[in-house]
Give the backbone structure.
Amino acid sequence: RKKPPVQYVRCEIEGCGTVLAHPRYLQHHIKYQHLLKKKYVCDHPSCGRLFRLQKQLLRHAKHHTDQRDYICEYCARAFKSSHNLAVHRMIHTGEKPIQCEICGFTCRQKASLNWHMKKHDAESSYQFSCSICSKKFEKKDSVVAHKAKSHPEVLIAEALAANGGSVICSPGLIPEPARAPSPTQETAPELRQNPETVPVL
């Protein structure tokens, strides 16, 4: 069976946000992950987890045993499922078939892409960017503070160009000259160490 071309979509149900490889998988996801009730119960004494499908329960039951039937042909590491083996094998081959459509980030499994997409959700509120390094910020005042801290030389050059070569810098941008220690500060420790050398008046 030929796989459909990759066309990522996201589940828009509140609290989900799962990324799927094709729109046709979305209805299946909504049906079995959000609508179908969980009626299969794990009978392990310390578990009791619920599942919607019996095959999900059978796959889960392997976690309570140490049975590992799937072995990596590169390093002989054993796994409990063929899916885990397939993901692990990509470490040896260097394959990263899943790609973020926003920034081009690549990864080996959809769980990593789901976690990565949360970064873009957080960055969507960052509307102000630095004109020098393109770093984004949530507030305009944060951009001004960022430029003063990270790009002071650029701000000075822009001020010089705007004022015909003369500019008054803020005190924070000009280092204070080092002060020479007074003679009293230099000799005081010696006088304390050798009190006999103090002249008597």
